[in-house]
Specification:
10 helices
């Protein structure tokens, strides 16, 4: 006669993992300061200083959508990739696999902690947009933007986990920057796509940053691409991220 091995309820395990990861991410200024400071600084710069942003309400809305998206992407990539790469190199993954905790709880903790950082970015960006820029949206627009940002955050969280699963601790920050900054620029998050060369516009169709940005710009009706194409592009990249993350963790489990 055999007896089942007792296991802690899933809810408390998940709550404990999320709390630990959130403290790890949110208490570290190396994560929080750049994640919040850079998108806010760029947003204010392009809204008040650069000529095409001054005194143009439509452009101010587009810049808010762009730099909010930029900030959420950075929070998810850095918040997922770097802690996972660190845990692999420090032997934490090996330790986790010796415990009764399901590995999915560990992954969920990483995603939710990064999401909390993304929420902090979005809150500060929204406060600046309302207080300093004078952005006035309806409740429906704010709800739509929140839904878009959540969907995009999950997609880029998967991409961040893929980077953390494939690269070591000392390489992951460089890889994240190599993925994040060029694709943000080429995907229309730094400058309007209308002023980009034709070849960049074609290249952008293959970038997740462009599809995420188009969905965000669609909230104030400033997107250029059809919503189904943008949704399909973002979902495709989310699936690619999940597959690469799973492959990387199976290939190098510790």
């Amino acid at each position: 006669m055999t007896t089942a091995t007792p296991r802690a309820p899933l809810g408390p395990m998940l709550g404990h993992e999320i709390a630990n990861e959130a403290r790890r991410v949110l208490r570290d200024p190396a994560y929080t300061a750049p994640a919040i400071g850079f998108p806010v600084a760029f947003y204010l710069l392009f809204t008040f200083v650069v000529p095409f942003g001054r005194g143009n309400p439509a452009m101010a809305e587009m810049l808010f959508a762009n730099y909010l998206t930029f900030g959420v992407i950075g929070a998810m990539l850095f918040g997922c990739a770097l802690p996972l790469a660190q845990d692999r190199d420090q032997g934490v993954l090996k330790l986790k696999r010796t415990t009764p905790q399901p590995f999915g709880v560990y992954v969920a903790g990483k995603l939710v902690a990064a999401l909390l950082l993304a929420v902090a970015v979005a809150a500060v960006m929204s406060a600046v947009a309302i207080g300093a820029v004078g952005l006035r949206w309806s409740a429906g627009q704010w709800a739509a933007m929140a839904a878009v940002q959540l969907a995009g955050a999950l997609a880029f969280g998967a991409i961040g986990l893929a980077i953390g699963a494939w690269f070591r601790d000392n390489a992951a920050p460089g890889v994240v920057n190599l993925v994040f900054l060029p694709t943000a620029a080429l995907g229309g998050l730094w400058f309007p796509m209308s002023i980009m060369p034709a070849f960049v516009k074609v290249m952008a169709l293959g970038l997740p940053t462009f599809h995420f940005g188009e969905l965000a710009r669609a909230v104030p009706s400033l997107g250029d691409q059809s919503l189904p194409l943008s949704i399909g592009g973002l979902v495709a990249w989310a699936v690619i991220g999940v597959l690469l993350a799973g492959w990387g963790l199976r290939r190098k489990p510790y």
